[in-house]
């Protein structure tokens, strides 16, 4: 029996093409997914990686071998696949490795209506089925039809955010040679927004920089272009364009926590008293601001399947993560960076001040950003931190996701193992930059010892 524990992650399938992921595995996964969700059809999309079309086709073979039809939407951002799953009310599969380097690929799965498929909601069952080598169904084959969803996706997003009253804006968009280069032109067509494109050519080798805006080095080109052109804002998308990062008119990055708070306030204005989800790594400013605007904040684990499940359970109207994933009830509780970007631009266009002033009220604390450490034994290092800080007076420990340590002065940090890479991730927040640096260095000295 093949051990697939290194490929089936907490909420997706991901690995190195040709070593961990190949057409045979993907075909078996398609068959297992079809058995999990049943008919009548599965919608499949893929990103611009060289390996994606072939893997998507192999998955479709597995699905149709079970007598289930396939709706192939071709090139798509991940949120466009979620849109198709919601609009068509079909389970879906998106072939992408998001921000990972070119040699990787993977599959994000969802049930009809973009409902998540994670370890506890079907992914473990799919893995067990693949490992067991369950044979194909003995019956008629399903058929594959093609359907272009880009125009419908763009039109739907524009119904959710009204930019008709916006002042004209000039923005720079860095697509990172990812799927934003495919979706941005359609979404922004006809809006009062002048877009300067950067790296819109679809290229899964990522020739200009990694399509991972969470790493500050990948924002440098966009920041320089915003300053050079005098643009009102910059927007950076990751490889599958489900995340967006915002740059203000000074070329400074706006934290995803500040964007979460800004969008939450806009959504609460439409739905007073609504529930807002935030993961445990977002700034503590987020729940503060949600409460100040009459909302109910709910804290959850990191990861899209956990967020979506909590949104369904609570009826939340919006959710945000520190990694710039933003989830909307009106988008089938799925994450869409494009919709978050439209909200930010609408808020900016509704008033005359610059983006830096608009977002200042939503950024109350200093933060380290995510700091990654490669260590031999992740749990051993987490245990060392727990032993060190757990012995101190007034310190609170929380193990909802990794280890969160709250200090008496209001500062806190979270240390957790990555769900997709062999890393420990550290996030620190405190009252000012000096306090962040001191706490960061103290924790890293133990983690990297």
Quote the average pLDDT.
96
Oligomer designation: single chain
Distance between the termini: 38 Å
Q: Helix proportion of residues, in percent? A: 25-40%
Q: What is the CATH level 1 assignment of the largest domain?
A: Alpha Beta
**How many helical elements?**
14
Q: Please compute the radius of gyration using only Cα atoms.
A: 22 Å
Q: What does this entry look like structurally?
A:
- Residues 7-125, 152-251, 259-365 form the Alpha-D-phosphohexomutase alpha/beta/alpha domain.
- It is a single chain.
- 36% of the residues lie in helices and 22% in strands.
- The chain is of the alpha/beta class.
- The protein has 4 domains: 13-148, Alpha-D-Glucose-1,6-Bisphosphate, subunit A, domain 3 (Alpha-D-Glucose-1,6-Bisphosphate, Chain A, domain 3, 3-Layer(aba) Sandwich); 152-239, Alpha-D-Glucose-1,6-Bisphosphate, subunit A, domain 3 (Alpha-D-Glucose-1,6-Bisphosphate, Chain A, domain 3, 3-Layer(aba) Sandwich), CATH 3.40.120; 256-360, Alpha-D-Glucose-1,6-Bisphosphate, subunit A, domain 3 (Alpha-D-Glucose-1,6-Bisphosphate, Chain A, domain 3, 3-Layer(aba) Sandwich); 366-447, Alpha-D-phosphohexomutase, C-terminal domain (TATA-Binding Protein, 2-Layer Sandwich).
- Strands 1, 2, 3, 4, 5, 6 and 7 form a 7-stranded mixed β-sheet that branches.
- Helix 1 crosses helix 2, helix 1 crosses helix 4 and helix 8 runs parallel beside helix 9.
- The mean pLDDT is 96.
